[in-house]
Amino acid sequence: MLVVAAAACNDTADQVNAPDLTVPIEWSLDDMAAAPAPPAADWLTYANRAVGFSVQHPPHWQLVDLAPRGDIQGVSLQGPEGAVDLLWGQGFGGACPEGLVELQVAESVLTACYTEAGDGSATWEQIGKVLDGVTFGARARTVAGAAGGADVIRTIFGTLAFPLRARG
């Protein structure tokens, strides 16, 4: 379990009773590469046979087509806990100032640039896999204050499979 701690700070040396502001977070960075919980039986499947991937998502999440940006196309899975954008095309990349973490998918582990904001929301970016003739990319984010958001995102990624066209 990851614990975030903060203490009140003041200039008076004789005041030593700072309030305990320790807040437990529901999962740890070390758990990201571990197998996520299996999806519920009522989850829906989105499959893109042309690109060569499939993923499951909760039934209360919506599938939204994203506007093409240059050579990149995609869809977004969106729910009250957050969103997962699934992208394909050419032209992915960028820096990762926070560092990479491992993220478990159905058949393997992919890397992601992970950041956590001050409001408790989290983002995973620069998740990618080279497929036959196209590059797959993904990014995800949780909604600040949404209970279980990181677990839902991890479970969605745990169902991400590349049954066709994968090149490594």
Q: Largest sheet, order of strands side by side? A: 5-6-7-11-10-9-8
- What is the arithmetic mean of pLDDT? 79
User: Strand tally, please?
Assistant: 11
State the separation between the terminal residues, measured CA to CA.
33 Å
Strand content: 35-45%
* Estimated structural class: mainly beta
Total individual domains: 1
Annotated CATH topology: Protein Transport Mog1p, Chain A
Low-confidence sequence ranges: 1-33
> How would you describe the shape?
globular
| Helix-strand sequence | EEEEEEEEEEEH
CATH top-level class: Alpha Beta
Gyration radius (Cα, Å) is 18 Å
Question: Mind explaining what this structure looks like?
Answer:
Strands 5-6-7-11-10-9-8 form a seven-stranded antiparallel sheet, covered by helices on one side. The protein has one domain (27-158): Mog1/PsbP, alpha/beta/alpha sandwich (Protein Transport Mog1p, Chain A). The chain is built from one helix and eleven strands. A hairpin with a 4-residue loop joins strand 8 (100-104) and strand 9. It starts with a strand and ends in a 10-residue tail after the last helix. The protein is mostly beta strands and 168 residues long.
Tell me briefly what this model is:
With 168 residues, the chain is mainly β. It contains one helix and eleven strands; from the N terminus they run E-E-E-E-E-E-E-E-E-E-E-H.
Could you name the key traits of this structure?
single chain, 168 residues, mainly beta, Protein Transport Mog1p, Chain A, seven-stranded antiparallel sheet, two-stranded antiparallel sheet, 11 strands, 6% helix, 42% strand, globular, disordered N terminus
